[in-house]
UniProtKB/TrEMBL annotation:
NCBIfam families: peroxid_rel. Residues 41-128 form the Carboxymuconolactone decarboxylase-like domain. Pfam families: CMD. This is Uncharacterized peroxidase-related enzyme.
């Protein structure tokens, strides 16, 4: 499951047990990326608060499927197979269109987003790519280009934050050897209306 010790639900008590109760879905599953925080429960709270805010919050205006696409793309760029599989499964569920999902997956796997995207969506993915690979190369011109592509400044912030979140999540996974052993893929706190609902279903 990971290279460091983790505590499962049976071993959890106090604060950790309470957090696990919040994130467990109907099956009781705790995703391994979350369980890896178990020795420091406060970091799990921070992770979940950020995750919920950037991907599953009523205050976001970009389509959730597009935000999941950015996350899958960034995870692929970072070679984080765990996050690619989890978030592509979630993306596929949101799309409810197997052909479109396959087109997107093929484009991501090939590293050629133009195969599945154009216009402003492609511009956002290219920004996410540069932020992931060469963040020091970004300038004000890149923000202006996103505006010209049709994004409002708040939407640019959403793209920035979901990209930054996945940099964090990917490095948590890759740096601690997290793998999907024993997990159902693609569960997430899909209730965007309640920021405090962390349940993964």
């Amino acid at each position: 499951m990971s290279w460091i010790k983790t505590l499962d639900r049976k071993a959890a008590d106090g604060r950790l047990s309470a957090i696990y109760d919040r994130v467990a879905g109907k099956t009781g599953q705790i995703d391994n990326i979350l369980a890896v925080h178990s020795l420091r429960p406060h970091t799990l709270e921070g992770h979940m608060a950020l995750y919920k805010a950037v991907l599953h919050h009523y205050g976001n205006s970009l389509d959730k499927a597009y935000l999941e696409t950015i996350g899958t793309w960034v995870s692929s760029l970072n070679k984080c197979a765990y996050c690619v599989e989890h978030h592509f499964a979630g993306l596929k569920r949101l799309l409810n269109d197997d052909a479109r999902a396959a087109e997107i997956r093929d484009a991501i796997d090939a590293g050629i987003p133009e195969r599945a995207f154009s216009g402003r969506e492609l511009a956002g993915l290219r920004y996410a790519e540069l932020l992931t690979r060469q963040p020091d190369k970004l300038t004000q011109m890149h923000a202006m280009a996103l505006r010209e592509a049709g994004f409002e400044d708040g939407e640019i912030l959403e793209i920035n934050q979901v990209t930054a979140y996945f940099a964090y999540a990917n490095r948590t996974v890759l740096g601690l050897g997290v793998n999907p052993a024993g997990e159902a893929l693609g569960l997430s706190p899909n209730t965007s209306d309640d920021p405090d609902n962390w349940s993964h279903d």
